[in-house]
Amino acid sequence: MIDTDLYKAKELYPFQVDTVFSILAELEANGNDFNLLYQLPTGGGKTVIFSDIAKKYIAKWNKKVLILTHRIELSVQTSKQLSAIGVNNKVISSEVKNLNDQDDYDCFIAMVETLNNRLNENQNFVEDVGLVIVDEAHYNSFRKIFQYYNGRNILGVTATPLSSNKALPLKDHYNKLLVGESISGLIEKGYLSAAETYSYDVNLHGLKIGTNGDFTISSSDILYSNYFMQEKLIFAYEEVAIGHKTLIFNAGIETSRRVEEVFKKRKYNIRHLDSTFSDKDRKDVLHWFKYTPDAILTSVGILTTGFDEPTVKTIIINRATRSLTLYHQMIGRGSRRLPDKKDFTIIDLGNNVKRFGFWQDYINWHDAFRFPDRFLESRISELEDMEFEVEFEFPKGFEKIIDINILESFNIKECYLECIERGKKGKLAVEKSLDNHYQAISLTAKNLDHALALQKSLQDHIEHRVKQYTKCISKSTENYMKYLLETYNRQLSQKLRLEVQDS
């Protein structure tokens, strides 16, 4: 239990009270085995809302509530709010191996990976759960938990109801979307600060798109670490944000370190923070940031969720992103309202406003939920897709599984263009790509089973190659892609069966 004397419960605003009753009414009307997704902008108070839902659900249904998060900070924040409103709760941290005392608690908060490990060992690790609440429900990692709670209610909450993996849309796991107050509505009612946006046109030539659909960290670091981009950042800060508490978001650590160096040379009060910092060092930096009026904090990824510092006056997006969720998460860090803070400044240095519109613009979230592909395609045009080279990034440690140098030595687009130039069929590029995959697998495989396992582990890379080819021939329909991918895999496995088992 968290000491409630150290934490004062946040009281619900009128619109939050209405939301609690609306959600509970949906659960009651639809019975068990009903999954509801709730959308509310960052800063709208999702934690306060779902904590109150947990309290009322426990009282009404006499069942336990399980709350899932993906960051320990969010778990602790939720536990404090629950304790302050009188809900007996326990955080299931990595140190918690069993729940012999679970009868003492009505609510449990767990990080998804920790809970998944416990449930793999014991499917009834947490007993008598009636409602599972998923914070930041757009993250795909939560899905692995759902199988253990069939027949129970699941409530997902998120600011952006778009899955982190567009191949696995949220509509596949949630029966209905309930949309909360809009950003403009929360501003108008005085719950969020208004934003003034300054967008500086940036030449993004050189950025590459990774397999996750966003720009790669490596290409972003190269672009944003150069002299001209650093100068543009300094110019923008000095033009509209000088002296204000400022949070700078970067794509890579190299860029953020460079930003810190450049600002320090100008005698500005700046510090850098990234995920490699120890807990103590991170707390020291955030304490400094909180109590330093003109502080500038340059960071990488770590502060997009689970970070709440209402005194931030300026958000600088020193990166380009193709993720609407990330765009809203970054800006949301500056939207908190204070008695002496009714507005904040956004500086966009990644042409993100062109891509997604202004932060406070109306978004049809029902459309995003029902038709995610169409929704995203309407914001990221084919022209932009053609402007950037799509680059595959292998997962960390993948070089220990297979020789990725062999795979990276082949470029299907370059091969296709070379074939056409020599008057040969473009389809020859697919055959050469298949030979390249075969070479990499056969040089590593110990036997046929190992070879087929390696082929399976390369599916993302194979799909990337096939997509590149279909773009070359301007024939990228979903059915053709599926046909080509199935043919490619069948021919590759046949080649492996013929060659590898005889070796």
Q: What does this entry show, briefly?
A:
The protein is of the alpha/beta class and 503 residues long.
Q: Strands across the major sheet, in which order?
A: 3-4-2-5-6-1-7
Second rung of CATH, namely the architecture of the largest domain: 3-Layer(aba) Sandwich
What level of helicity do the residues show?
A: 40-55%
Give a quick account of the main beta sheet: strands, pairing sense, barrel closure: 7 strands, parallel
Give the overall pLDDT as a whole number.
88
| Cα shape | globular
Number of helices: 21
Percent of residues in beta strands? Answer: 5-15%
**CATH H level, superfamily name of the largest domain:** P-loop containing nucleotide triphosphate hydrolases
Low-confidence stretches: 1-5
Count of all domains? 3
Q: Kindly state the number of beta strands.
A: 15
Radius of gyration equals 25 Å
Separation, N- and C-terminal Cα atoms: 62 Å
Could you tell me the CATH topology label of the largest domain: Rossmann fold
The helix/strand class is alpha/beta
Broad CATH class of the largest domain:
Alpha Beta
Question: Care to describe what's here?
Answer:
The chain has helices at 14-30, 46-61, 72-84, 112-121, 143-146, 183-188, 217-224, 227-240, 253-265, 279-291, 324-332, 352-356, 365-370, 372-377, 382-387, 404-408, 412-421, 428-444, 448-457, 459-472, 478-499, and strands at 35-39, 64-69, 89-92, 107-111, 129-135, 153-158, 176-179, 194-199, 208-209, 246-250, 270-273, 296-300, 314-317, 343-348, 389-390. With 503 residues, the protein is α/β, with parallel strands linked by helices. It folds into three domains: 4-181, P-loop containing nucleotide triphosphate hydrolases (Rossmann fold, 3-Layer(aba) Sandwich), CATH 3.40.50; 189-361 and 368-383, P-loop containing nucleotide triphosphate hydrolases (Rossmann fold, 3-Layer(aba) Sandwich), CATH 3.40.50.300; 394-502, no CATH class. The strands form three sheets. Strands 3-4-2-5-6-1-7 form a seven-stranded parallel beta sheet. Strands 8-14-13-10-12-11 form a six-stranded parallel beta sheet, with helices on both faces. Strands 9-15 form a two-stranded parallel sheet. It is globular and about 70 Å long. The N and C termini lie far apart (62 Å).
